[in-house]
Design goal:
The chain has one helix and ten strands, in the order αββββββββββ. It is mainly β. The protein has a six-stranded mixed beta sheet with strand order 1-10-9-6-7-8, with no helix packed on it. It is globular and about 40 Å long. The structure holds zinc ion. Zinc ion (ZN) binds next to loops.
């Protein structure tokens, strides 16, 4: 009986995260589905009712305004105006306070998001202030893939 021979393959050189990081930029994933990380900049994409034009960021079976069942994707304007806000001083462990939770009117589409890059106090945050969509890295995994979140910064 012939003995079977096994040939040992040379071990493949494993890439470390450091070599990966040098060879190409880290992969990026948006924190929420409606944040689009486009090649020409980030923007928000809403589900717009084909019947009445109401916009929603979550998936809907029917429009809350008219009951319509068909939606199309709509790009939301990236510039807006602060129409409501609250300065938050208490949050879950690990979340830095104070921060500004805001409601931003982006050309008729209402967006709830934090106001970033501003001092979180009434001296610096004002109703009617002009804002623009801004993204930031909120964390990364062991492979270096970055999670991208968004807020609105003074414009
Ligand atoms: Zn509708």
């Amino acid at each position: 009986m012939a003995a079977t021979r096994t040939t040992k393959k040379p071990a493949k050189k494993k890439k470390t995260s450091a070599t990966r990081a040098r060879s190409k930029p880290p992969a990026r994933v948006p924190l929420v589905d409606y944040l689009v990380l486009g090649a020409n900049g980030a923007y928000l994409r809403a589900n717009e009712c084909k019947s009445c034009g109401a916009r929603f960021f979550d998936r809907r079976n029917a429009c809350a305004a008219c009951g319509g069942r068909e939606f199309k994707k709509a790009r939301v304007k990236s510039r807006g105006e602060l129409v409501g806000f609250s300065i938050v001083h208490r949050a879950a462990p690990g979340i830095a306070v104070p921060f500004v939770s805001g409601i931003v009117d982006c050309g008729g589409t209402t967006v709830r998001a934090n106001v970033i890059d501003v001092e979180a106090d009434p001296e610096h945050v004002k109703l009617g202030m002009k804002l623009a969509l801004a993204t930031y890295v909120s964390g990364s995994d062991d492979d270096g893939t970055e999670c991208v979140a968004f807020g609105y910064a003074p414009a």
